[in-house]
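I have a small job for you when you get a moment. Can you supply me with one protein entry, sequence and fold together? It will help me judge whether the discrete encoding reads sensibly. Write everything out right here, beneath this request:
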Amino acid sequence: MEWVNAENVIAVGTFAVASAIAFGQWWYERMVPRRRRIGYRVQLDTAIGDDDGTGGGNTRLGLFDEADGMDEASVVLLRIENDGALSVSAGDYTSGGLHGMTATFDGREVHGVAVTVGPGSGALMSHFTPAHGLEYDGSSLRIPRVPLNRGEYFKLLVLLSGGTVGSKVTVSGGVQDGDVHPNESLTPDEKPPVFSRPARLTSMAFLVGIALLAGLIVTGGERPPPMGCATGSLEVTGSTAFAPVAGELAEAYMEQCPGSRITVAAHGSTTGLRELAERGAAAKDGAPPLVALSDGPAPEGQEAGDAGAEGGAGGGLAGTRLAVSVFTLLAHADVPVRNLTLADLRRIYAGEVTDWGEVGADRSLPIVLVGRGAASGTRDVLQRRLLDGAFEPPASSRDCSRKDNPKASVIRCELDTTDQVIATVARVPGALGYSELRTTSTLEGVRRLSLDGRRPSLDGAGHDAYPYREIEYAYTYGRPPADSLAAGFLAFATRGPGQDVVRTHGHLPCGTPEGLRVCGAAD
């Protein structure tokens, strides 16, 4: 199976270990009975006499030196605590007498005992009386049935004689559902751990698993592409206005999906649609690997819409709405006009107005029209959206500077790309042209013109009445198969990171709520 590989095995194994630990903790907390435990340990065992048998040889002064029998004396500090999960009551001790436990000091004789309790446990002192079983005899010290809450403790300082320091000390006795046992504590120089030993071991196991997984990812061989990716080759043609977006979308898709190759060669919307229709009609074994971008819908009768079958079997172009493109009128930077009315714009393109002085300029300056060829979708949008369906006047100049046709009322030239239009408008005094909005945002020598007082803006594209805008379409010959590169590329362009690329270039993605209002209204 494809999913059985080193990365998945380690990932699943790490998950299984984590699940087992989590379940084990839950099971232990709920199913394993909690126990009563009394722990004890010797915190001090030292000689206070000078007899070598007791480990003496120390310096003494006062009562330590004067009292009888102190030459072989030693003291032991014994700590007794509840280190279990439950509290211990007086009735939980299992010994038969008054006392609950017995401390035995091998080879030494008990001569006295002093009791201390922990902070907040002063009530325990009432249990340390002979009436409650506190007594000593020979090497034994009997300890009363002292009730202890969890974590509560008391200490016994025992005065001894004879024997040797460090000889065995034991505490015997029993409690119901538990035991009495020796325990340990940190030495004064040790630092208490922040996490328990099981927690540290578990963290280390996870770290090893993650390190192995990361190493396999970094050093592993070629892996299958992410879900939704397709391999093969695809051509993108059509609109030059949308070509920069298509180029970046192609690069992003190829980076995400190794094995795919997408080339972008834009020659105008009409040219791209015509090429797609011709190659699709000529294809005998499915649709061609070609996507044609168009500023606006394909000509009526050419588009198959959603009815087009996969692979072009429907015999027509199937369109996908990508984005709302905002276009703008451009003027040479020295043109003293900031706004044009639609009525004045139509008069200019009809040849009725040939000088900027006739549309509000404070001086005379001949108008030079810089446009695109008949195959341009940007030109088609201008004619449909702004000129009420009228065509631009015929070209009268090849260099955009002087008339080649002396009978023409205005100088007008045609260029192949949007970039050429922008550069020419910036070069020729009095020039008027057009382009999509984003392309002009950083260029010098040109000025964007408002239309009827409305400025071109992407922010208002979803609801503003600015008229010079259009939906950008991506056409295929019929609906492409779901596992094809064309389908994968179009899905990437309309969802997720593709939408960010579209917006970065100054277009409003149709997949956004704002874009849906405009793109959906085109139905």
Remarks:
- The CA atoms of residues 59 and 364 lie 119 Å apart.
